[in-house]
Write a structure and sequence with these properties.
Blueprint: E1 3-7, E2 10-12, E3 18-25, E4 34-39, E5 46-51, E6 57-59, E7 67-72, E8 77-82, E9 91-98, E10 109-111, E11 115-119
Parallel strand pairs: 2-11
Antiparallel strand pairs: 1-3, 3-8, 4-5, 4-9, 5-6, 7-8, 9-10, 9-11
Length: 121
């Protein structure tokens, strides 16, 4: 009954765009930060972007200026707009809601199943 359902992944050309969605149900949403993580083959999982309950955002340096995280509290959904995609953006992208209220990217939480993003010509 706790669900974080992701969509929007796929195969895109370098320089292209994708918009990921993560619909949250079964747990509170509005007062919590949300985050997007990614994990590429052979690499550690990394925090890509986060957004606070008030809409403040933070980004990994590698995606700053290209990605944008947003949320729609009426839909209990968090988005990740990805522009000017590069092959090194190829990874499984997962959304996460922390267990605890507070700053994003701290501690563990509820996870989505992950969606594959592949950037290739």
């Amino acid at each position: 009954q706790v669900q974080l359902v992701e969509s929007g992944g796929g195969l895109v050309q370098p320089g292209g765009s994708l918009r990921l969605s993560c619909a949250v149900s079964g747990i509170p949403f509005n007062m919590y930060s949300m985050a997007w993580y990614r994990q590429a083959p052979g690499k550690q999982r990394e925090l890509v972007a986060s957004i606070t309950s008030g809409g403040g955002t933070n980004y990994a340096e590698s995606v700053k200026g290209r990605f944008a995280i947003s949320r729609d509290n009426a839909k209990n959904t968090v988005y990740l707009q990805m522009n000017r995609l590069k092959p090194e953006d190829t990874a499984v992208y997962s959304c996460m809601r922390p267990y605890a209220l507070g700053p994003p990217g701290v501690g563990d939480g509820y996870w989505g199943q992950g969606t594959q993003v592949t950037v290739s010509s």
